[in-house]
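User: Teach me something about this protein's shape.
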Amino acid sequence: MDTCFAALDAALEALKPGNTCEDVHRACQAVVDRAGYTDAFRKRTGYSIGISFAPDWGEWQVLSLYEGVKTVLRPGMIFHIPPALRIYGQFTVGVSETALVTETGYQQLGTFKRDLAIV
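Assistant: First, the predicted structure itself:
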């Protein structure tokens, strides 16, 4: 879980104007890799949300925070960032945050305390 917390923090720090979607993913992935959980994190770091994205099963309009996505972040963009680690049949842990790209960085939109909950 500590790795998920650190990965989220790294992603949020990279969520700023001028960086790309790929930059945010790479910041998150680097934390996961350093902790030795590369095989447990085989997904995008996050995705865009907002009123301009009509529901669509294929998510064709959604920006992914992922390798190869070169879209530059701009103020006003909003992303959900849910780093999770999974070893199927053994464990899943994760944390998430929704954040707005601002002129100078990011603004966290969630207000819940980040704690480990075992369910």
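Now, about its shape. The chain has two helices and seven strands. The first helix runs from residue 2 to 14. If you'd like, I can walk through any region in more detail.
User: That's plenty for now, thanks!
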